[in-house]
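[step 3/7] fold_predict: job queued, chain A
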Amino acid sequence: MLPPDEADSAATEENDPEQNTAGQSMMEARAQYVEMAIQQAIRRGEFDNLPGAGKPLANLDRGYDPDWWIRQKIESEKITGLGPPALTLRTENAELDARLDSVQSEAAVTEILRDFNSRVVAARRQLQGGPPVVTPTRDVAEQLALWRERRAARSEAARQQRESEAAALAAMTWRERRRARPQ
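[step 4/7] structure written:
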């Protein structure tokens, strides 16, 4: 054990930046070794043809987001139904017309719209954290009329397609029709 005066001087020598060159030289040696290993790998071509080479880094324009990995996982896996109600309702609102077009009956369209409107109203009433709910409710009668118009336009387009195919088939000779038949 050192006397108190010698212990104090030994402690100040360890903390003195001019005296502590062994640690710095060790760090510099490690940095030089790493740099040398990287340069050798570059010369060997180990960094050539990596996935993402020549492409910009993603999300550089966004600010810092502590939940970046969750957002990235949701986007890559295309997971739906997760997140605050404001965001899920907003995405559902954007995809609602396509969902309505896949339905065949007016009763089903009405049920989907009523369910959507009730969830929007319920989300507005909740005072939980997260972004505010700005998704509008949908007028059932108006959306039903728009659904009927889209359905009529689709059936008209399908009818015209069938007529044009029939006219093209009628214009062919019997040999051309025989060759055009699926086998």
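[step 5/7] annotate
The chain has seven helices and no strands.
Residues 97 and 154 are 14 Å apart (CA to CA).
exit 0
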